[in-house]
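Appendix C reproduces, verbatim, an entry submitted by the partner laboratory led by Prof. M.T., so that reviewers can inspect both the input and the predicted structure.
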Amino acid sequence: MKGKLWIGFFVGVIVLGASVAGVAAYEHEHGGPGGMGMHMRFERMAVRLKLSSAQESQIKADLKQARTNAKPAIDSMRSLRGTLAKQIFVDQPDQAAIQKNADQLKQQLSTMIDEYVKAGLQINGVLSSGQRAEVQKIISEHQELARRREARLHEHEMHHEQMMHHGMDHGQPGGPAPQQQ
């Protein structure tokens, strides 16, 4: 449950960053900065929030600084995740080493979240009250989309589970593989 809480908090921070700026805070998962796609998302957000050119410039600078500050943590997380996976899936897992790397991964995640929260607060200071209200609407829209995606995924998983169960009960594909003799 604690892991889901961390993930939920992290997703909330990302929704805030993406909503305010139109960029994915966790863009390293998708091959680095979004380039033209990120630029287009930002432009759509700027139009929706009716940002002035001064606001746009300040927000872009804040986001660039947040990405720069978070990059070492992001790079470290990528490396630590790989190391952690390798440590877990061995014949004799070293619990102490696993815990040490898990703790380091949590610390890097915390550092990255801190950078995006800091940027979000800086951006909040640039926005007018009406723009903040619009950001609240955008956040709600993102949360609703995430809720629908999660519901579809859960529905898909349940359907898959039922199909597997049905196949296992009736000797259909999806049941246990025949034993070779």
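The CA atoms of residues 73 and 108 lie 5 Å apart. Additional entries are available on request from the coordinating office.
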